[in-house]
Write a structure and sequence with these properties.
10 helices; mainly alpha; Butyryl-CoA Dehydrogenase, subunit A, domain 3; about 200 residues; single chain; globular
Length: about 200
Amino acid sequence: MPPGPAGGSPDHSGSDYSEAVVERTLGTLAQLNPAIAEPAAPPDAPLTIDDLYRSHRMGMVRLAILLVDDQASAEDVVQEAFAGLFRNWDGLRDSAAAIGYLRTAVVNGSRSMLRRRRTARAYVPPHAGTARSAESLAMLTAEHQAVVAALGDLAPRQREVLVLRYYGGLSEAEIAEATGLSKGTVKSTASRAVAKLGDIMRAR
């Protein structure tokens, strides 16, 4: 994607600029992720599930909220992911494998939650006062709010890829592992998703 303009007044009618704005704003989502913001533990520090829970729970909840748009559902997804981590703890090599397990479990749990909603055909959007509440304190600009809201209009796979890339700060290889997609599919999906977000933003 081309970079945004170096200066001057923005031209919101330009397609390239709109996508650049979307990418720039998405790029700041990582600031909302406490797991990225916090310094890494010393390499020789002992790691327990409690350590991971304290350092990564809120990051995983916020990740799930961006995927399912509902804090209560997101917390259920993350709780189940940590329960699965506990059951599989002995089979994990190190902290990186444990965090990768959690990310994949959150993505899969969010997919299952959305499938259950579609099957039940009874999902009511959460009240505006509680939706995305874990992000709302940090979402200080209209640009952020508009882009995060527009994520909900993307296809689930597109939303997963963008959330993992920009909020999670993951590489294409890590996103592929978390979602079960190929690296090529991750790259093309991200490109189409950013373009789609630009279209959504211009239509609003």
